[in-house]
Design goal:
7-stranded mixed sheet; globular; mainly beta; 4-stranded antiparallel sheet
């Protein structure tokens, strides 16, 4: 059974940094994509950053380019999201996502990030 567990969320001042971690337990054969999404209450979940293990490429939302960095350990069992220069607009629940070779999505329970002075 695949489970994803996020950690690292919290309260940070504008301009600050946070690093989110997502630990993947269970076996996912040949993950096609690993990523982070976020959701604000009343709005749709949106893609923040995505990593494609097979080719090593990444994809970022325009709003976070140059500020956020997604990475993974060599075994693709942990996915990180380094967030710098945080803005109040980055406040949301952040969800980890892994998509397997059958295009099945797995989600974590989410971690709250609040950017406020």
């Amino acid at each position: 059974q695949v489970q994803l567990a996020e950690s690292g969320g919290g309260l940070v001042q504008p301009g600050g940094s946070l690093t989110l971690s997502c630990t993947v337990s269970g076996t996912i054969f040949g993950p096609s994509a690993m990523g982070w999404y976020r959701q604000v209450s009343g709005k749709e979940r949106e893609l923040v950053a995505q990593f494609f293990p097979r080719g090593g490429s990444t994809n970022y939302a325009e709003s976070v380019k140059g500020r956020f960095t997604i990475s993974s350990d060599n075994g693709h069992s942990v996915v990180y999201l380094q967030m710098n220069s945080l803005e109040p607009e980055d406040s949301a629940v952040y969800y980890c996502n892994v998509r397997n070779h059958l295009m099945t999505d797995f989600w974590g329970q989410g971690t709250q990030v609040t950017v406020s002075s």
